[in-house]
Amino acid sequence: MLWLIANLYPFLGLKVGGIYTENLMIAGAWALFDNGMGELGLVVFLTSIAFPFLTMAGMVYLLLPLRFDAVPPFAGRIYQMVKTVEPWSLISVFMLGTLIAIVKLQDLATVVPGLSLFAFAALLIVYATARSSFDSESLWQKIEEYSANDTAITSLAEDEAVLHCHICGGLQLTGDTCQRCGAAIHYRIANSIQQTWALLFAAVIMLIPANIYPVMTVKQLGKGQPDTIVSGTIHLLAHYNELCRTTSDYEGAVHQAVQEVATPLIISSLALSLGFGILLFSNFTIVAQFGALAAATMLISIFANLLITPIIMTRVRLVGLYQIIAMHVDKEVLEKSPLLIGMTNYERKKAILISEIHHFEAGGKLVIQGDIGRNMYMILEGNATVQRNDGDQTRILAELKPGEVFGEVGYIRAIERTADVIAATPVTALNFEYQRMQKDLKFFPNIVAKLNFNISGILGERLADVLDSK
């Protein structure tokens, strides 16, 4: 009954922009087929719909006649079919995929669980319980009793070998087929050790791409964000690094990153843990063990992401290689800037990433006359004007272009600013704050040392210009 409800009623509904659509459970397999992935769609259909139905129908076919003291025809063949498809009845895996999809779709649409989803969840529990309580030995004892066909071994010589059926578990002394179910029997599985090693080696190899490559990509408005198994931790670190580029308060950045990422991270991790935990109901030992380990891993990841990772982040300043490679800044501006002289292009980009990037609209003040602060700026994009106010008079002291540096005296010593610096156009500028640079000295000693050396050179040039003007 639960299987019928799960397949005949709506499984999930999606509401996007006032439009509501519903889908049956088979829609997932059909969508894969319709998008050119017919083989994968067939696998989903077989493992989530067809094989579970065959297993349940076969169990009913075997058990119902015995309830009325009768032996079902072709019991052996039906039992072989049930035992063959039973390990591949992966409704627990399908439920895991459903939970993951629901978590990922929450940001894109309103997900409305249908009656089929609840019936499917109940089916998972009932189905797993039925499989675990299905005693094949009691079944065959009943069949042998009603058919007057006793296959039990009554005596055994000391050196006599015994044949074992890997389908029904029957034992016999001679023959090529099982006397109970008709399956082929043998003393040992041929090349079992070699097969085990080969499969284990293949599993270890596949573990690498399983953790490196994306599990799924959710696309919205033509843009997609791929997710890997460890994407939660990566997202937390990336968000922390992004916040560090706008503030010198590293601990505050950690707290803000954890607060903003914690809720979706906990929900997705718990959903994944629950989904993997469902695999514990599987009679397929390998699947059950995998579910237990995966569920435990997801629970441990919550602890690590919310406690261990933040502790590490407060003591480490992160700059990713991808960020350095992907950064697009006018190379000519970097080469001509006196602050970045003597650095390689890689070192210049790294210096940008460990500083704070500030954006100013036209008319915005980068520096305010009379303020006190130990920081300096380098313009990346746009133009700015240095303007001094003396009573009612206003003087333009200089026009600043990309690559130029200002505020270097205040960086060395906390003194009042002697002029305003106003953005003439939208400006993107790097802010080098003294206390922050001292913190970063232990993380990036070579970069900070070169920056400090160039700052001393800029100050020397300023002093020489002042002396020459006198």
Explain this structure to me?
There is one protein chain. The chain folds into three domains: 1-150, no CATH class; 233-318; 328-469, Jelly Rolls (Sandwich). β1 (12-16) and β2 form a beta hairpin. The strands form five sheets. It has a four-stranded antiparallel sheet with strand order 8-15-10-13. The chain is elongated. The chain is built from 17 helices and 15 strands. It has helices at residues 2-8, 27-34, 38-67, 75-85, 91-105, 115-132, 136-147, 192-212, 231-244, 250-278, 285-313, 321-326, 331-336, 345-353, 408-412, 434-440, 445-469, and strands at residues 12-16, 19-23, 110-113, 163-164, 171-172, 216-220, 223-227, 356-360, 365-367, 375-381, 384-390, 393-400, 405-406, 420-423, 427-433. α1 (2-8) packs antiparallel against α6 (115-132) and α10 (250-278) runs antiparallel to α11. With 470 residues, the chain is of the alpha+beta class.
Concise summary:
The chain is of the alpha+beta class. It has 17 helices and 15 strands. A four-stranded antiparallel sheet has the order 8-15-10-13.
Key traits:
470 residues; alpha+beta; Jelly Rolls; 3 domains; 4-stranded antiparallel β-sheet; 17 helices; 15 strands
Tally of alpha and pi helices: 17
The strands making up the biggest β-sheet line up spatially as: 8-15-10-13
E-strand count: 15
- What is the global morphology? elongated
Q: What gap, in angstroms, lies between the N and C termini?
A: 98 Å
Structural class: alpha+beta
Task: Tell me the domain tally.
Answer: 3
- Mean pLDDT comes to 77
Kindly state the percentage of residues in helix: 40-55%
Give a short account of the largest sheet: 4 strands, antiparallel
Residues in β-strands, percent: 15-25%
User: What is Rg?
Assistant: 35 Å
Unreliable spans: 321-326
